[in-house]
Amino acid sequence: MNSKTKNILGFIAILLGTFISQIDSTIVNIASPTIGAYMNSSIKTTSWIASIYALALGVLLITASKIADQFGRKKFFLYGIIIFCLSSIFCATSSSIGMLIFFRALQGVGAAILTPIVIPMAVNIFGSNKNALLSAAFGGTSAFAASLGGPVGGFLTQYLSWKWIFLINVPICIAAFIITLFCIKESYDETTSKKIDFKGNLLLTAGLFLLVFSLIKATDYGIGSPSIISMFAGSLVLLAAFFYTEKRVKAPMLDLKLFTERNYRNSTICVMFLGLALAPSMFLINYFMNNILGYNSLKTGITICSMALTCMIVSIITPMFYKKAGYRKFNIISMLAFIGGNFLLSTITPNSSQMQIVLFLMILGIAMGCGAPALIGGSLRYLKDEKIGIASGVINMSRQIGVLLGIAIFVSVLNYQSEINFSMGKKEFVNDIQASATLSATAKKEMIDSVEKLTTQSHDAHKEDILNKIGQEKINRLKNIPKALQPGITKKFDSEISEVSNLIDEGTSTLKAKSSDGFSITFLYSSIFLILSLFFAFKTKPKQSLENKNLAS
After folding, report:
1. Helix, strand, coil shares, percent, the chain, to 5
2. How many CB atoms lie within 10 A of CB 137?
3. C-alpha–C-alpha distance, residues 290 and 516, integer Å
4. Are 154 and 28 in contact (CB under 8 A)?
5. Considering only the top CATH level, what class is 1-188?
6. CB-based contacts of 230: which residues, under 8 Å, 6+ apart?
7. Under a CB-based contact definition with an 8 Å cutoff, are residues 138 and 31 in contact?
8. Deepest in the core among 97, 167, 448, 523, taking most CB within 10 A?
9. DSSP of 402-464
10. pLDDT per residue over 65-100, tens digit each?
11. Are 410 and 522 in contact (CB under 8 A)?
12. Main-chain phi, psi angles of 364, to 5 degrees
């Protein structure tokens, strides 16, 4: 086998590693209710299937990239594949929710090893002059895999079994392992010390654990709750202690000179905004399509796929223009498209068509396709090749924090707005019921009791149950009265049934409209918040060249 073929196969293996680590961040979301029912587990406990993966991935990204730089990227990539493969098998064969959560944590460890070292491994194969193309390939693969998780998870759960959302990883892992073993050469950061910075590792791990954990649980307790604020403050103290320590040790875990390079620093901040921008479009839109539009999981996943496909196409095309136009223009276009895309999402209503949502998501796909390759490729362009490993770990960590921060902020905003709007809708619903001159007192009470039980997660006013009760009451009444009086009684009950049906339909529409307003406000806030990203996008360098790789080794 010649070297060119080996390089291509090696690159495919690396992309497979990227694919499985990213698709598993979203593929379980749709399957979680099915898994919870199978395991007889509460929603709160089942939610840890997704949360523990994000926690392990977020906390260990930088540590994994540093250790791989020190002791061998190929070696750790293989370790990551083994851990990911075995944990996937154990997830599928778990007999309790506790076992499943434990093995999902191990799967997150495997993903944390794979994610940050794929770019430096690829650079070692093709050279840093291919940075733009490599970044485009990884950016497109990551976005496509994350968005593909929804429809794939929905399909496998519906037509096979939830176990297959884990078992599907096994053949991919085996292929990636074999190809990597024979087609990729080992690489290191030759300038870094082999000495492990235990103090720095401990402070960083503890600080990131509190930060990521607080962001994950912010959706449960509220972002302003004392426990979340305390954890967030504790993480800041630990991370501050980490940076203080790193300035004073001889062999620091994280080379702080990375952040003295203006382009890398501003690009890293933009990547965090990019992750934050994805939160509404990849997570909140799911709830909108499920709860407001009534889409099933498969239809929701397929709709979101439009963003992934657009991203993949754009990320392939845009690197052709980097040399002539520079990275900064694409960074700015990306952030403007994210702002515009989220603003357009704020205009969707319960009457919006699937095509309308697809078009808006395609704009966000353009944003992602322009931004991810340009920001990652541009940020690494000025760094020494041997520093790309740890730099990639920091960038991936930044994106992960951005996504979690976006979920924490915008889910909190959505919950607050939804509760207010939904309460207003319920009040209007009840007032319309009370104002009806057609309904009997019994029917009014039945309907009002049903409305009062409604939550933002369910707009079902149990129309059929109420109509069935009225119908049964009609049958019982007709049994006990003379035939001459039956037409009048029948007319009265038919009028009541028609009135109940109309009131519930109108009330349900009102509740959906009010809930939709909560989503609209949240998407609008996200677009306004993202305006801040433009400041950092403009601060990235307009032209990128292979010269001036100015980070000291």
Report:
1. 80, 0, 15
2. 23
3. 12
4. no
5. mainly alpha
6. none
7. no
8. 523
9. HHHHHHHHHHHHHHHHHHHHHHHHHHHHHHHHHH-SSS-HHHHHHHHHHHHT-BTTB----HH
10. 888 888 888 999 999 999 999 999 999 999 888 999
11. yes
12. -70, -30
DSSP state letter for 185: -
Contact 390, 61 (CB under 8 A): no
Average confidence score pLDDT of the chain? 81
Phi, psi angle pair for 194, to nearest 5°: -80, -5
User: Hunting for tokens 């895999």 — which residue is that?
Assistant: 145
Q: Which of 8, 20, 16 is closest to 176 using CA atoms?
A: 16
CB count in 10 Å sphere of residue 467: 17
Tokens describing residue 236:
């800041």
pLDDT of residue 549: 46
Residue type, 503: L
| Three-state SS at 184 | coil
Range with the lowest mean pLDDT among 160-164, 171-175, 231-235, 299-303? 299-303
List residues bridging with 455 in a β-sheet.
Answer: 458
Cβ atoms of 315 and 369 closer than 8 Å: yes
Q: Do residues 146 and 308 make contact, with C-beta atoms less than 8 angstroms apart? A: yes
Rg of the chain, C-alpha, whole Å: 27
For residue 155, which amino acid is it?
A: F
DSSP string of 461-519, one letter each residue: --HHHHHHHHHHHHHHHHHTS-GGGHHHHHHHHHHHHHHHHHHHHHHHHHHHHHHHHHH
Find out whether 252 and 198 touch, Cβ atoms under 8 Å.
no
* 480, 485, 486, 488: CA torsion to nearest 10: -130
pLDDT, greater one: 178 or 191:
178
CA 308, CA 120: separation in Å to the nearest integer? 24
More confident residue, 393 or 528: 528
Q: Domain segments of the chain: what residues?
A: 1-188, 420-518
